[in-house]
Amino acid sequence: xxxxxxxxxxxxxxxxxxxxxxxxxxxxxxxxxxxxxxxxxxxxxxxxxxxxxxxxxxxxxxxxxxxxxxxxxxxxxxxxxxxxxxxxxxxxxxxxxxxxxxxxxxxxxxxxxxxxxxxxxxxxxxxxxxxxxxxxxxxxxxxxxxxxxxxxxxxxxxxxxxxxxxxxxxxxxxxxxxxxxxxx
Length: 184
Fold this sequence. Notes:
By secondary structure, the protein is mainly alpha-helical. It has a single domain, classed as CDP-alcohol phosphotransferase transmembrane (TM) domain (Four Helix Bundle (Hemerythrin (Met), subunit A), Up-down Bundle). Helix content is 77%, strand content 0%. The chain is built from six helices and no strands. Helix 1 (4-23) runs parallel beside helix 3. It is globular, with a radius of gyration of 17 Å. The relative contact order is 0.12. The model has no long low-confidence stretch (mean pLDDT 91).
């Protein structure tokens, strides 16, 4: 349990309450601090998997916990962004699509897991995650980012829409692969 990848995953989960708390502070510094914590979480998300492979410390706990930590983080952020009007109206649709895919793939992996069937992450899914991470960063800082990049919120909303499109494409690919095993 006490290896670097697992520590990074627990750290990512641990900073989520701080990130959530910063949303309730309306000052610009809080938005920038939230972006900093979010960026740190993204870095640890990359590093935990990288370290696990490089250090040959892939563990059952890490294999179980890392994707759950990712889903908790993304779902919490999407709900916060909706609650704080950074995703509202039509912009809620990409968030709902992303959440639906997360539930679908998690359920599919849970069903296939006992049969020792894995759905490997595709390159396109990694691109989807990258676009989604960048989009969420823009949305986390929100209008406070306009001093650095005008229309920050609009960029975040456009990128989350692209991420949702990639989510549909990759989700369909995973579903097709999974259904081969379910209907066999």
